[in-house]
Amino acid sequence: MDLIFKSDKLQNVHSDIRGPVFMEANRMRAEGIDVLRLNTGNPATFGFGMPDSVRNALLNNADKAVAYCDLKGMPDAREAICAYHKAKGIEGITPDDVFIGNGVSELVTMVLTALLNYNDEILVPAPDYSLWTNSVYIAGAKPVHYICDEQSEWYPDLDDIRKKITPKTRAIVLINPNNPTGTLYPKELLEKIVEIAREHNLVIFSDEIYDRLVMDDLEHVSTATLCPDLLCITMNGLSKSHIVCGFRCGWMLISGAKDKAQDFIAGVRALCAMRLCANALMQLVIPAALNDPESTRAMLVPGGRLYEQREACCRELAKIPGVSFVKNKAAFYIFPKLDSRFNITDDQQFAMDYLHSKHVMIIPGRGFNWPTPDHFRIVMLPEPEQMAKAMRDLGDFLADYRQN
Question: How far apart (Å, rounded) are the C-alpha atoms in residues 378 and 324?
Answer without folding.
Answer: 13
